Amino acid sequence: MQQVTVTGTTLYALAAKYLGDATQWIRIAQQNNLSDPQISGAPVTLLIPEPNLNATGGAPSQ
Hints:
single chain, 62 residues, alpha+beta, Membrane-bound Lytic Murein Transglycosylase D, Chain A, two-stranded antiparallel ribbon, 2 helices, 26% helix, 23% strand
């Protein structure tokens, strides 16, 4: 797991960069208790999970 500090981006972009698959944005959201994939305003430090080729993306299960 790694930490990154970001602003003005999306979880989609972070998932593509760090996990190799933009659809896995939900894994970052769940790790950081976020529901909105848009990051704006003040810088935010997020935990990025390790890449997992078997993980699936999409909407969170309810």
